[in-house]
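sorry for the late reply, my laptop died twice this morning and i had to redo everyting from scratch. anyway the thing you sent over, i finally got around to it. pasting the sequence first so we're on the same page, its 114 residues, then the predicted structure underneath. double check i copied it right bc i was rushing
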Amino acid sequence: VQLVESGGGLVQAGGSLRLSCAVSGIIFSTNDMGWYRQAPGKQRELVAAISRRGVTNYPDSVKGRFTISRDNAKNMVYLQMGSLKPEDTAVYYCLASWSGSDYWGQGTQVTVSS
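ok and here's the structure:
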């Protein structure tokens, strides 16, 4: 199983970024997906989740600013981030939950300057 994130970078506050996660090695349409982030000195936290049926879930900290989506034909999951804030700065990780196990990508850095 392999998850590869891309799309991170440096952006000014108020800007937007789209993260992508390419998934291989699993039956993608049957699994739940999520995006997490971890800032220095903080615990990893959920920022968005999407079920195999397309039901989405967001914490209040990003609700209305972030949108998770998936393309089952391409084995891809995306995180569209808008109205970015300096506190969104973190390493963002893609998670696939499949067949009772969790699989993580290597992470992509997002830095939001004020």
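The radius of gyration is 13 Å.
thats about all i looked at so far, will dig more tmrw
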